Amino acid sequence: MLERLFRLREQNTTVRRELLAGLTTFVTMAYIVVVNPRILSETGMPLDGVLFATCVSAAVATLIMGLAANYPIALAPGMSLNAYFTYSIVLGRGVPWQTALGVVFLSGLLFLILTLTRVREQIVNGIPDCLKYGTAAGIGLFIAFVGLQNAKLVVAHTGTLVGLGSFSDPQVQMTLLGLILTAVLMARRVKGAILIGILATSLAGMARGLSHWPSHLLSLPHPSGTLLKLDIAGAAHLGLAEIVFAFFFVDLFDNVGTLVGVCQQGGFMQGGQLPRASRALLADATGTIFGALTGTSTVTSYIESASGVAAGARTGLGNLLIAALFLGALFCSPLVSAIPAYATAPALVLVGALMCQSVSHVRWQEFSEAFPAFLTVLATPLTFSVATGLSLGLLGYTLIKIGSGKWREISGLIWVLTALFLLRYAWLAIE
Predict the structure, then answer these.
(1) Residue 58's pLDDT band (boundaries 50, 70, 90)?
(2) Taking Cα atoms as reference points, which of 139, 158, 344 lies closest to residue 257?
(3) What percent of the residues of the chain are helix, what percent strand, and what percent coil, each to the nearest 5?
(4) ∠ at Cα 57 (323, 61), nearest 5°?
């Protein structure tokens, strides 16, 4: 049955490898089980309800991705989108969180319509190759930067924006230990090297007293605080069309960028296009609708899925385990939250290194291809946004093709996207 569903032999993989890679992805992104409820609870949403919504929406969307699209990409409520939901919409504009959930629901419905009409698939497949390679590398640098921040190896600095952390910090020392251990294991081609590194670093930190075992292992879910509390009617006639568009826009290109980057790293792209793209995009659309109904912000593909791909994932089989673990996290959230940031940071840095390999496929001798790729690679980590990196790279692609007299190489889709991006940045300038 597994062979028929996931075509393991065709992808030259095994059940053990896929499940191990799925476990690696879950451990790397398990922080969302704790972080998302903490952020959304600042709006007044019950923390227990958000925890339930986070785990259930992640499980549903990840399961759809694995079964329908057969890609090893996990989904969960997006970090940038939960911050936008909390700080910009609810706290910034004074919109009730129930109404904001209604906005998320409407944006998810729009995702679903555009997915079923294959518009989103055309966007994924219409992105030029240089931007696909640049996005993969940009996400790699983004992941590594997040890892270095989590480990306090990179810290804020008033004079230079960022600076080097203190090596006297025990958490920095543990991160360096985990980084060296995991890198050596990967260089020696040890299966499950990333997962071994995460677990070993966690245990070593606990032995040093830097983190602790949870006081209890089990807790019961309490969904009633947010389940079906969304206000769709309020979202529909409060003049929130621009907020719906903002959610739609950010998630569309954040998700597209993540899909393209991770799939490029895994070798899933064929002739510059992503097979079964509509099925893959169906996962975040359904997950977003389901998340709004249960009580969380927009669901999107996670760049941490690259850690599972690096660990050998080639099919959606591991997604079954990831979904089961998210559901299990409903009852074991104290155990999940015991994995410290300094233990997952080395995985993010090393996965970032692997993803940067994609820049070797950029035609650097052709400057009209090289510059947009470079701009995407550079902007993604510096703006802390996959969507912004991709949008700036695409604008650079269009402008340099026009300026160099190669405008015929610009497809109709790229013209449309360029116009939309220009309108977006013009709107941001006015705002």
Answers:
(1) very high
(2) 139
(3) 70, 5, 25
(4) 60
